[in-house]
User: Fold this.
Amino acid sequence: MEKQLSNIVASSNEEDADASASYGVDCVFLSCFDHNALFFASMLGQGGIRLHHACTLEMADFLLLATRGTVLVLDTTFLDGSWADALAMTRRLHPLVASLICVDPIDGELIASAQELGGFGALWMPIELERLRSTIWNAHTVTVERRLWLSEREHEYRSSPRTLDSVRDAVK
Assistant:
């Protein structure tokens, strides 16, 4: 298994995970290029972003679960698929996670179809570090807002007597 670039250990306690998330961002970087991941991890760590490197979709899925990651940054090159495969995996298994795609200017046509498949945004290569940092924080904010909205809807559903009555009537 690929070594993780941060020393954060995923917590099984949900409160601890929520507390650690409030002090920064856990971001998964899916790429087969180790040198990019190492550089980004060292530079982003100073801004409160913990970057975890994955070179396969399976590893990205695992790291998103283990770290409660809120952002997936996709390079166009990784070992077992394409950005479209990664967006499909994210949409299916991690629908609240925001996905960012690193795009070469040559691949500019990808952007429209990537947004249709659920991509949050694009980062044009060469990637400017400040732009990467601010885009990851913006994507993190969107993911946190999505989780909060979903949590509120679940709470309303559980506490609504009308909903419970309609479920009981439907069962009869």
Summary: Confidence is low (pLDDT under 50) at residues 1-21. The CA atoms of residues 47 and 133 lie 8 Å apart. The domain at 14-171 is CATH 3.40.50.2300 (Rossmann fold). Strands lie at 25-30, 49-54, 71-74, 98-103, 121-124.
